[in-house]
Amino acid sequence: MMLFSSKKTTMPTPQNALPGRSNPIQTARFHAITGNSLKGPHPSNMEIAIFGLGCFWGAERLFWQLGKGIHTTAVGYTAGLTPNPTYEELCTGLTGHNEVVQIVFDPQLISYESLLKTFWENHDPTQGMRQGNDKGTQYRSGIYTTSDAQKAAAEKSRQAYQEALRTKGLGHITTEIIDAPTFYFAEEYHQQYLEKNPAGYCGLSGIGVTCPIGTGV
Q1: Does the pLDDT at position 113 exceed 70?
Q2: CA 62 to centroid of chain Cα atoms
């Protein structure tokens, strides 16, 4: 996917990370499909989930296609060092950020566990700093939780999926699960990219192992 990627597989240090900028970069205002605001304010009953599972173009499509209960989705950058990074800076490997999708959802209509199931089953979480042919720190598998309940559910699902992989003779999960750091919205052209470019690149694929967690509502 990433023509400018340096394919760095080690995280930068605070000393060599790019300095970034004080103001956010420009992005879209509204979701290209739902018409809802990307930045909010969102209805008070909504929750936010953030996942990194490789190329964020395909990752975002996975979640908006879930339909019922998904208020909006957006792609962006998180878990790095550089404030308000650009896409080109991310691709140097010197910001430390991961490509992620942020999902605003109604937990009364779709459970967080359902989102976790979609996350696990649609990428390979054992590859470290890569996803398929996409290599670099920006493609690492990650779950960035926004509540204690999310963190507990994420860790429980990781244990369950690791056991499912083990029974198939597959490898160790490398997914990071951490409290959600600052989420920076990606540039406008990245938002809902595969809706605007249906033939665009998507390198995501699962490994054919079902995640044994309940889907709830």
Answers
A1: yes
A2: 11
Render pLDDT for 180-195 as a digit per residue (tens, 0 to 9): 999 999 999 999 999 9
**Using an 8 Å Cβ cutoff, are 100 and 76 in contact?**
yes
Where are the chain's structural domains? 47-196
Catalytic residue, chosen from 55, 91, 202, 211, is: 55
Q: Which CATH class is domain 47-196?
A: alpha beta
Looking at residue 30, the DSSP 8-state letter turns out to be: B
Active site residue 211: no
52-111 pLDDT tens trace: 999 999 999 999 999 999 999 999 999 999 999 999 999 999 999 999 999 999 999 999
Cis omega (within 30 of 0) for bond into 41: yes
Tokens 């942020």 belong to residue: 102
Amino acid at 212: P
User: Residue 21's closest CA among 72, 84, 91?
Assistant: 84
CA distances in angstroms from 130 to 13, 22, 134, listed in the order given = 19, 29, 6
Rounded CA-CA distance 179/187 in Å is 24
Question: In b/e form, how buried is each residue of 34-45, taking b as 16+ CB within 10 angstroms?
Answer: bebbbeeebeee
pTM given for the model: 0.95
